[in-house]
Amino acid sequence: MYVNVTSERRERDVEYYWIIQRRYLVEEDEELCPEDSRDRRRRDRRRENDYCYTSTRSKEIRGYNGIFEIGLEFEELTEEDIEEPIYLVKERKYPVR
Fold it and tell me: How does pLDDT run across 55-67, given as a tens digit for each residue?
């Protein structure tokens, strides 16, 4: 699933993250495997039977000033994914002047 996000040029200090099933937070360019709550961000030690959510890094779409693309990838769609919405949050690190 990929989303296009409109952002003004001056909003360079913006963080994106996903909220999944109203309880998991997946930051930009990170992976979360909810099966193992003790060590959720562990790309190098993922077990074969884990289902994981991976966020891509946001990138500006060439030819479209101020429009960025960010994606959320997952191997399996669970019942919880269908029942609960998935949110993409855009948060400014610093206030815009």
Answer: 999 888 888 777 8
State the DSSP string of 22-89. TTEEEETT-EE-TT-TTS---GGG--TT---EEEPPPEEPTTSTTEEEEEEEES---HHHHHS-EEEE
The pLDDT-based confidence of 34 (bands split at 50, 70, 90) is confident
Instruction: List Cα–Cα distances, 52 to 32, 48, 64, 88, in angstroms.
Output: 6, 10, 31, 17
The first and second tokens of residue 53, run together, are 């959510």
Global pTM reads 0.71
